[in-house]
Amino acid sequence: MKIKLIILVAGALSFFTFCQKVVQASQQERRVEQEKRELLGSVESPDLTEHRRFMLDYGGWLDFRYDDYDEEDNDSSTTDTYNYDSSLDLRLWLRVSLALESDGFYQRKHSFYLRLKDLYYIDRRPEPTAGGADNDGPHVDYAFMMLDFRPYWFKIGRRYFSVGNGIAYSDIHDGLELHILYHTWGIKGFVSYTLPHQDNIDTSVPGYLKESDRFFYGTEFRYQGIPDQNMYAYFVVQRDYSNSQPQDSLHQYTYNSQYLGVGARGDISSQMSYWIELIRETGNSRVYDTREKKDIDAWALDCGISYGFDVYSHPFFSVEYIFASGDEDREVVTDTENGNTIGDDTNFLYFGYILTGYALSPRLSNIHLYKIGISANPLEKVPFFREFLFEFDYYRYYKDKSSGGISDLEATENNDDIGSEIDFSISWQISSDVRCVIQYGYFLPGKSYPSSTNNNQQYFSISTTLTF
What is the pTM of this model? Predict the structure, then answer.
């Protein structure tokens, strides 16, 4: 009986650890996808400088990438859950635009944009399949129409939705968005839905893989009546209709949330800029064992300043502070099981993205994050390296609630010192069609990690992108 109990407990702990590594891996995948999305952003909307009534554009984007993880579990005595992978990512896109004449110019354009994605893993360790290879696709990455009836714009289909600076909500979803834009102000409203076969953010839900079923409704107001300033406010509602597979009649996992955000960004001078956003989260979550409904009472803040020096290499310096509230009795920041048990749920759980480092890459839950960054082009006088950028970032992480958990399961000690990280990156636009990026991150665990899991963690990647 005692042996069976030990096996059961060990199995539960192994599954618990695996689920948290899935969360951490999904954070890395989200960061990589965000970087790719930003590079592809220039082809998503029609070019209004073209004076043609009808326009058909198409092209492709091929990215070869290698990612290496070292001690991602902070424990050198165990085999890493994720070791390395190499992949080929192919995106093929098509855009059709129809321009309407206004005041003698083709100023209004209706357009349709389609992008297909095929991600092929050449080799992965540990192997997901017997051969070590895996294929995700081909499938529809983007597919949306943009209808221009200015000052009204309609965007319908699968595309990237976001509010504010993208923390509370930003993702590729299916939906509808309406923009109303005037000279000094604009407002947008949207409704969107998670993609088919998208993983549930709550990994404790039975069958969470490919079973997310969430709706988002929101509106955002922006004001630009003050020169060089952009102020905004938004409200987003998230409703969870996910089901457990198989059905779990003993527990409820529903997480319904609302986000109210206010923010601003702009220039302090010709060389200095700032940004700030404050987010209030409300709603309700469930207690795993009792199915009791608890109120959500959480906060997040992102603020910073940057300064560009007009000297050789044009160094760019930035300082940023990010805060997201935590819950002192939560072990897992995304899940119902091992989640909130007593009182209000004060853990900030969001459906967007912000960069928090290459190696640790924590979610913004129960955390204070301090970041110092500098970038420069030390070879700007060499013509071949004119599009060359070197970046260095230093991160310092602390818990909000020292007894609560963070997205990295190993930080179990009742101590607020999570650790620090240094990141380096080199990006080089070799030509108009070829780009190379190298990234390296090194995380040093703090006193939140017990001695058994406080080994340093490393991340390395190199990618080459061909545009055609």
Answer: 0.90
